Amino acid sequence: MSETANTANTASTANEAAAEPAEVQAPGRDASGEPGSWGARLRDAAVERWRPIALAALLLAACYAPFQLVPFRVFQLTMVLVYAVALLGLNLLVGHAGQISLGHGAFFAVGAYAAALMLDRWDVPYLLTLPVAAAVAFVLGLGLGVPAVRLHGLYLALVTLSIAVFLVPLLKRFESVTGGSMGLTLTKPAPPAWTGLAEDQWLYFLALAVAVAAFLLARNLLRSRVGRALHAVRDNEAAAEVMGVRLPFYKTLAFAWSAMFAGAAGCVYTWVIGFVSPDSFPVTLSITLLAGIVVGGLGSLSGPLLGGLFVMFVPSWSQDINKAAPGVIFGLLIIAVMYVAPTGLAGLAGRAAGRIRRTLRRE
Amino acid sequence: MSTPDDDFLVVEDLHAGYGGARVLHGVSLTVGRGEVCAILGPNGAGKTTLLRALCGMVKGRGAVRLGGTGLLGRPPDAVARLGVAHVPEGRGTFLPLTVEENLRLGAFTRRDRAAVQADLERVHGYFPVLRKRLKQQAGSLSGGEQQMLALGRALMLRPRLLLLDEPSLGLAPMVTRELFGIVRSINEEERTTVVVVEQNAHLALGIARQAHVLETGRIVLSGPAERIRADEQVARSYLGYRV
Amino acid sequence: MAGFAQQVVEGMGAGAIYAGLALALVLIHRFTGIVNFAQGELAMFSTYVAWQFMDAGLPFWAALAITLTVSFTGGMLIERVVIRPVEGAPELTMVIVTVGLFIFVNAAAGWIWSFLIKDFPNPFPDGALRAGGVAVGYPTLGILAVVGLVMGLLYLLFRHTGIGLGMRAVAADPDSARLVGIRVGRTLALGWGLAATVGAVSGVLVAPLLFLEPNMMGGVLIYAFAAATLGGFDSPAGAVVGGLVVGVAETLAGAYVDVVGSDLKIGVPLVIILVVLLLRPQGLFGRATVERA
């Protein structure tokens, strides 16, 4: 978990650095000590130096945590990681490619059901279910990506939303395969004896491993040609096309990858919960995921993790006040984030950290 | 000796621009009531920006007063309600609506129904071609007809001040001459004050009393239209045509 | 054959409801280019307001009148408070903001009125009009009549009043609208108010058929989207025709296509949306829009 947080931080700083040359060109910006000035360069240097240390510390904390917490808390952290992986996918699509999906819960469900079926029907070793579930979601994403390429913003939102709505009755209908409304109950992966871990701890480490791998994969994706192409698409579609970015190709690909991450998250979900049913994946899941990534921070790598924490803990804390409280908080925060901080919690954290570093340097 | 009529429209030290780009650097001029004033100058001199600042489409610093009322800082709809009709670049026609609806929209702020009906007749008088096309979509009109519609729509406000931005743009010379002829008769018959921005200096000077030459956001020359027209030096250096 | 006609009639009854919500969606889209994902939830909230007044003892029609007024004001307020600050923002931002509004309104209704279902009285009498083996329920007739009435009133407003002309001018070209003295902000708020009112009508019509609960409009919204997509997002008449078509298609598919049955009917709007968007994105009655950069 901490590992991921750190990767994310460094990556978001890298984003800032990438944005700076453009800012330098704006006259009158240099003197202010804002990005693009000496201060920013110093700051980046500082981050560069501290990054490995902070990263190691956080990873250590993440590995230490399950031995200090009660099983329920460990379970909650596991779910944070699961959501973070799904949000990572949604972030690729919304934050980096500028597309929207109101139906990412559907890909999550597809991954979850794919894993459940493999475990239930064919006793596939559970580690093997992960690549297969991810691949299934990837292919479905690719299939949906083809029409999605031709759809603009809100139409894409319409289609993805109706897919999410359609999924629940669809799963219920094919009862012979999906177990219908009753769902499928599975045995959770048992910890190998040599680890000496309890079940909740083992599941936590599985999720942690998947999350770390997913974050590394996403980071590499975004640093590649593909990542640059996606940003170009997001920032100015027409210009990107003129510059020779093959739009349909990259948009479809973004959709497929994004689905793949959600599918992988769904697979880990099945491991952790040991039960899938149509009502585990209602439309609200899709909408909650969108809320999570918007509040966590669109376009930054730490956004998915913060979003995961948010999606997991805000409901569990606020539900004591009222069953509707999480929705009220989500709704208000989404709107507020769009007004004041389109980069979400991650952006706020980045700005706050920058300010603190500047303050410290002055002393 | 200046009378209130001489200072009907007063612009003092007007600065304006878009975002970081400053376009006008302290423009001052006055237009008397019932006069036609021509703003001339090369492309990019700030002519359009000047009109936009007058009608509130662009924020400006300095002072703009119409009959003693300050215009700066008011949004375009408020300026329109003070009786300023602006025929913008590109004519601002509501293309999906019919010709008649476009004309009625010109009188949107007026509540005197009977007078509006009379004005509709008056506009038809100036532009007989519009009468034939009342139920037609404005988007189906030719360029010249659309410019007439735009002017007609502006007249429906019974404007105290009429701002015209490049009325000749994209029109055939004959149509342009006809249009300027109509502007002249509107001015003469109704004593409407007109500020016209025009590339075609020859035409604009033909109907204007005063003229100002704008270059890179400053007025470089002002004077009676007759004198500016006669000044060959001016014609060559600023207006880009030979007399 | 009578059975088929019966299905068509019932489909039209359902379709009229979708048409109502689709009308609300189209109204806002025409003025602002926004598709309001919260439209269904606003309608649901309005329906609760109506329920609240009836619960306090008011007769149905009085409660309806108050509800429509409240909805109109509420819609204008939402435009001012929620939408105005992000006016002109990218489409993605707009979609996300209205989704945020969706979540908020849904939860707020649950908070105020709980998630338990409530009975909502049907304003129309039971029974049916029989003709040639087809029975048309009075509630269905009532719904058709109400949606027809709303449509007619909107037509009068847009075609024969100054306010309506101003609204159409704003929809056509906000900048030019300002130049002729129209208060564009106020007009946009008016559009939202109007849409909320029309949505409220659809909510009140739906509630007796489903049950009143916070998630009542979720499914209806998808059908309304399909209706608006089919008719064209900038055509009020298209929304109504689209709604009727979607309603009939849904009912017929449920009755005659075995794979669809009653449980997978929600797939029908999905298919309609996809097919329309891929074949004729502007819808049946919409104008092809020019891409704005």
From TrEMBL, chain A:
Q: Where are the transmembrane segments?
A: 50-67, 73-94, 101-119, 125-146, 153-171, 202-222, 253-273, 285-312, 324-341
Please give the residue ranges the record annotates as the region Disordered: 1-37
Kindly give the membrane topology term recorded for this protein.
Multi-pass membrane protein
Q: Which PANTHER family match?
A: HIGH-AFFINITY BRANCHED-CHAIN AMINO ACID TRANSPORT SYSTEM PERMEASE, HIGH-AFFINITY BRANCHED-CHAIN AMINO ACID TRANSPORT SYSTEM PERMEASE PROTEIN LIVM
Q: What is this protein called?
A: Amino acid/amide ABC transporter membrane protein 2, HAAT family
A single Gene Ontology MF term assigned here is: branched-chain amino acid transmembrane transporter activity
Q: Which UniProt keywords apply?
A: Cell membrane, Membrane, Transmembrane, Transmembrane helix
Q: Name one cellular component (GO) term.
A: plasma membrane
Main location per the UniProt record: membrane
Lineage per the UniProt record: Bacteria, Bacillati, Actinomycetota, Actinomycetes, Streptosporangiales
Q: Please note every region of biased composition (Low complexity).
A: 1-23
Q: Which InterPro entries match?
A: ABC_transp_permease (IPR001851), LivM-like (IPR043428)
Compartments it resides in:
Cell membrane
From TrEMBL, chain B:
Write one Gene Ontology MF term: branched-chain amino acid transmembrane transporter activity
* Swiss-Prot/TrEMBL keywords: Amino-acid transport, ATP-binding, Nucleotide-binding, Transport
What Pfam families does the record point to? ABC_tran
Domain of life of the native organism? Bacteria
* Stored InterPro entries: AAA+_ATPase (IPR003593), ABC_transporter-like_ATP-bd (IPR003439), ABC_transporter-like_CS (IPR017871), BCAA_Transport_ATP-bd_LivF (IPR052156), P-loop_NTPase (IPR027417)
Glycoprotein in keyword set:
no
| Xref: CDD domains | ABC_TM1139_LivF_branched
The protein's matches in SMART domains, at most eight in alphabetical order, are given as: AAA
Q: What is this protein called?
A: Amino acid/amide ABC transporter ATP-binding protein 2, HAAT family
Q: Which GO terms describe its biological process?
A: L-amino acid transport
ABC transporter domain location:
9-241
Automatic annotation (TrEMBL), chain C:
Q: Where in the cell is it found?
A: Cell membrane
User: Which is one Gene Ontology cellular component term of this protein?
Assistant: plasma membrane
- Describe its membrane topology: Multi-pass membrane protein
Q: Does the keyword Cell membrane apply?
A: yes
Keyword RNA-binding part of the UniProt annotation: no
Q: Which GO terms describe its molecular function?
A: transmembrane transporter activity
Q: Enumerate the Gene Ontology biological process terms.
A: amino acid transport
Keywords, A to Z, come to: Amino-acid transport, Cell membrane, Membrane, Transmembrane, Transmembrane helix, Transport
Q: Which domain of life is it from?
A: Bacteria
Where do the TM regions start and end? 12-38, 58-82, 94-116, 136-158, 188-210, 216-233, 240-260, 266-285
- Family statement drawn from the similarity comment of this UniProt entry: Belongs to the binding-protein-dependent transport system permease family. LivHM subfamily.
Protein name, entry field: Amino acid/amide ABC transporter membrane protein 1, HAAT family
Q: Give the taxonomic lineage as stored in the record.
A: Bacteria, Bacillati, Actinomycetota, Actinomycetes, Streptosporangiales
